[in-house]
Specification:
About 2% of the residues have low confidence. This protein is of the alpha+beta class. The radius of gyration is 29 Å and the shape is globular. It has a seven-stranded antiparallel beta sheet with strand order 7-6-5-11-10-9-8, sandwiched between helices. The chain is 45% helix and 25% strand.
């Protein structure tokens, strides 16, 4: 499709002429749906593997599913139309029963483009209209060409800004985007090693669910596992002490290697080509290897920051930064804007969004409530003690379990209770003229920063124990979610609520989007 034709189609949509998505979209949907035929084909083949015609039965099942999926995809494409109206965008869909959805422009928080692997091969994108409600309340068009998707996104943003220009005239050229943060292959490799993941073990566990179908193995046969463990135990006991220690270390190393490889794979798939730019429209983030996403976040819609790090990555000076925005990022209100950067790289990003990572000079950090941590420790210890008593009672009555488990549970409860007491030393909060800060954590510290003028509500909550012990929870309402801060001294919580409400009362929210 040429540039002029694309502009003409959007102009037709604006005039009320229904448009269809790209003709290749039904082919992309049909190819993507073929994966639904893989498991039925394999299941049929292994179920009938003693029959000479098993392979033909499996292929027949796969062919039937492919034909049905292709026909359904084509009919869905024929029956899906959209109109870019003067006040809203309207989408109609449905094969047998028709459904119409209309979303006013003022409700659209963001328009993002997403490309999964198969649509990307066809040069198609999914256009998502984020309404801020999340889930099924959001609207999407599957699929448009890359050029169509970009033009539609700009047209929607122009409608929201009150400067519609989709009549084919050449728009003014936007200034070049400024790159705020990017990750090359070397940075991704470092990031992947810190993203230890057990996803590979989850896949192996999932495959075991189908072992009984594809092989003559009864996974739930206790005698089978008892025999295997007995044989392994006899073999291990025959080794020397040094060999046993070496085996333990080898197992731990293999565990770490598999987890690191899983983390590397996940990181490269998710964050390949990660780049965050500053444009006239706001922040533009692109990333993804197999599934490529292109999200634009207006700066005035960033409501809070979340900065975090890990036990090990902190030693190397790396942190992650997220924006809490009105729109959602894959179901989450937090958008990754710099998942693996240094503080020197994160400060400018926060500044462009109108936030500070540190309070203004002269602002004091205040501690959280020590009583809150003491009560949390008592609750944790009580829960583990009750479980340990139950385990000990079972041993006393039936001898079915070892008393060592009761002691281990009680020891774990003591350690967690001590951790709660210790973490009080790292509970801090601060408030200056513009922002509210909460800093928590020792080995893996995190920092939450909320704008005093972009909050929707401030709630102070106290349970029966909190009222008696003199602490409270502060819940800050955002259009993109909630920020909850537990265990504040009650006087401090009242002071913070009063200061934030004063900021909200003196703010003209109609000027925030300017």
């Amino acid at each position: 499709m040429g540039e002029t034709e694309g502009h003409q189609e959007l102009e037709d949509a604006r005039l009320g002429v229904p448009l269809r998505t790209n003709p290749l979209s039904f082919a992309a949907n049909a190819v993507a749906s073929l994966q639904n035929a893989i498991f039925p084909m394999v299941a049929v083949f292994f179920t009938m593997n003693d029959k000479p015609w098993a392979i033909f039965a499996a292929l027949g099942i796969g062919l039937a599913i492919a034909v049905i999926s292709t026909a359904a995809s084509y009919l869905s494409w024929r029956r899906l139309t959209y109109i870019v109206g003067q006040e809203d965008i309207r989408v109609e869909s449905g094969i047998l029963s028709r459904a119409a959805r209309s979303v006013p422009y003022e409700r659209i928080q963001d328009v993002s483009l997403e490309q999964k692997l198969i649509p990307r091969i066809f040069g198609l994108v999914q256009v998502k209209f984020e309404t801020g409600a999340g889930g099924g309340d959001d609207l999407s068009l599957t699929y448009l060409s890359e050029a169509e998707g970009e033009r539609l996104r700009e047209a929607i943003k122009a409608h929201k800004d009150g400067a519609v220009q989709i009549d084919g005239e050449q728009a003014a050229e936007e200034p070049a985007a400024e790159v705020l943060f990017a990750m090359d292959e070397k940075r991704l490799l470092k990031f992947g090693f810190f993203e230890f993941s057990l996803a590979a073990f989850a896949v192996i566990a999932g495959l075991f669910q189908y072992a009984e179908t594809f092989a003559s193995i009864e996974l739930w046969n206790a005698d089978l596992w008892a025999g295997l463990l007995g044989e392994s135990g006899s073999w291990v006991s025959g080794l020397g002490f040094g060999a046993q220690i070496a085996g333990v270390f080898t197992g731990l190393i293999a565990f770490a290697v598999v987890g690191s490889i899983s983390g590397l794979v996940r990181t490269f798939l998710r964050d390949w080509g990660f780049v965050l730019e500053r444009t006239e429209k706001g922040f533009r983030r692109r990333r993804g290897l197999l599934t490529k996403t292109d999200v634009v976040m207006p700066a005035h819609r960033v409501q809070a920051l979340k900065m975090s790090t890990g036990i090990f990555r902190r030693r190397f000076g790396y942190y992650g930064l997220k924006f809490v925005s009105l729109a959602q990022d894959r179901g989450s209100a937090s958008h990754d804007v710099a998942p693996f950067g240094t503080l020197q790289e994160l400060y400018p990003i926060a500044s462009v969004a109108g936030f500070a990572i540190e309070p203004s000079q002269g602002t004091d950090w205040q501690r959280g409530s020590r009583q809150y941590r003491i009560d949390s420790a008592i609750i944790v210890l009580t829960i583990f003690a009750i479980i340990a008593i139950g385990v000990g009672s079972v041993f006393y009555v039936s001898g079915a379990v070892s008393p060592l488990w009761a002691l281990l549970l009680l020891g774990a409860g003591c350690l967690l209770a001590m951790q709660q007491m210790f973490m009080w030393r790292f509970d801090f909060n601060a408030i200056d003229r513009s922002h509210f800060f909460v800093r928590r954590g020792w080995l893996s510290p995190r920092l939450d920063v909320a704008s005093r003028i972009k909050l929707q509500s401030v709630e102070l909550a106290q349970g029966p124990i909190a009222r008696k012990r003199g602490y409270a929870s502060l819940r800050l309402g955002l259009a993109g979610g909630m920020l909850n801060f537990e265990g504040l001294p009650v006087d401090r919580a009242h002071e913070l609520r009063s200061q934030i409400l004063t900021s909200l009362a003196g703010t003209d929210f109609s000027e925030l989007a300017s």
